[in-house]
Amino acid sequence: MTDTLVRIKRAVLSGHYAFSEKATLELEADELTELDIVESIVNAVAIYKTIRSQNPYQKQTREYLHIIQSTNLEGLMIYSKGKLVQEAGIETYYFLISSKKAL
Question: Angle of helix 21-29 relative to helix 34-43, nearest 10 degrees?
Fold first, then answer.
């Protein structure tokens, strides 16, 4: 398990995470709960893919988005995409950009 995945899991288990509006809408559309996403991230054994992205609101800043595909405790495969950020003195804070059932 990578250091990044461990940091993501610790942030999520500590309750240091938030959902974007898009991720919240995807949760509702797929009839998923926050707990489903948390379970999926905690169950993950690896990060599926990490992509480099440019934040459209900060032209000079590149960020890394981590894609996790894993099951919740009921075996439902879930796709989530998020990033680790520093905020308000919290070392690792995971912001979910996308959260939905995996295809």
Answer: 100
